[in-house]
Amino acid sequence: MTNDASSNSNSSRLLNTTTCLPIAYGSIAFYLGKNNISNPTATHRWTLYVRSPDPSYDLSQSISKVIFQLHPSFPQPTRELTQPPFEVTEMGWGEFEASIRIVWKDEAEERPVLLTHGIKLYPNNAPATSVDPSTYMNTTVPVVSERYDEVVFTNPKVVFHKLLLDGGGAPHHHQQQQQQKKKKKKLTYPLSHESSVIEHFRSYGDETDVKAMLAAKEFLQKELRSVKDRLIKVDVELEEVKGMLSATMAASTTTTTATTGTIDGVGIEEDGVTSSSSSSAPTVVTTVVASSAGKVGTSSSSKSSKKKKTVAGGGSGEPASKKAKSS
């Protein structure tokens, strides 16, 4: 693998390099049973830890110390461990949230990583009401609560990058897409001081990741097929609605045309004037009009024969007979 460094010294940083360190952290809790004599107030014995998902990888090459912060009710709630295995084992009766601070080697010049984890004592199917735990728990099957994570180092120091590789397994290099193939080393320390805890450590590997990816792919394909089927159904329904709307509009237009063609001989009165659509000859009406000069004339009109009041000129609104008499 080739990386650009700002200088050849170990104090320089590897440019354009991203290194990921996998870690696993969590808790494993065992129910003590009803006949617990050593600590009658405690119901469980639990272990809080930070470890590598790879059983052969040595985290002590890159980690300087791990600081566990427990509930204040415990004696010495702050526990600092400088040697692996990085774990704390206690007995208690209640669940709480603990903090885990990972401090890196001085050569790394990296900020500490702070994690939080809830100590879980009871299984997910535990009854909501307060009942005797012995009715649904036993002392051989623990409650395991563990998380997998990756700590990302961008442009790490050259010396720290070597420490990460010396841990035993090559971390992931996302940009170069390469891995250092190193011989598996045997750890000089146990994975845990609690043998019962080691048995319940979860395993992480390529096989598990591949299965998870295949399951996710199958789920996405199923969802895509379902969405496609729904879209096709919506398109069909939309076309049906369009067809029904077109048929309704066509029927409405036909009905309007037929109605207009059958109207004949029906008079429409507008502003006091009656018009007729019949084909009969218009009636000639003689209207007497008085001019302002007092002369009388006649005019012919082809309007309806409906009687109209004769109004004298001048706009006085008086009958013509009265107007002639006064003159």
Q: What's the short version?
A:
The chain has 327 residues and is α+β, with helices and mostly antiparallel strands. Helices cover 23% and strands 28% of the residues.
Indicate the overall shape: elongated
Distance between the termini: 129 Å
Query: How much is the radius of gyration in Å?
Result: 49 Å
The fraction of residues in strands falls at 25-35%
* Helix content estimate: 10-25%
Mean pLDDT: 77
The sequence of SSEs as H and E is EEEEEEEEEEHEHHEEEEH
> Could you state the oligomeric state of the chains shown?
single chain
For the sheet with most strands, the description reads: 5 strands, antiparallel
Q: Please provide the count of β strands.
A: 15
Structural class: alpha+beta
List the helices and strands and how they pair.
Blueprint: E1 4-5, E2 14-15, E3 18-31, E4 44-51, E5 63-69, E6 78-81, E7 86-92, E8 97-104, E9 113-118, E10 143-154, H1 158-165, E11 172-173, H2 195-198, H3 206-261, E12 268-270, E13 273-275, E14 285-290, E15 296-301, H4 320-326
Antiparallel strand pairs: 1-2, 3-4, 3-10, 3-11, 4-7, 5-6, 5-8, 8-9, 12-13, 14-15
What labels describe this entry?
disordered C terminus, alpha+beta, 327 residues
Describe this structure in words.
With 327 residues, this protein is of the alpha+beta class. 23% of the residues lie in helices and 28% in strands. It is built from four helices and 15 strands. The strands form five sheets. Strands 3, 4, 7, 10 and 11 form a five-stranded antiparallel beta sheet that branches. The protein has a four-stranded antiparallel beta sheet with strand order 6-5-8-9, with no helix packed on it.
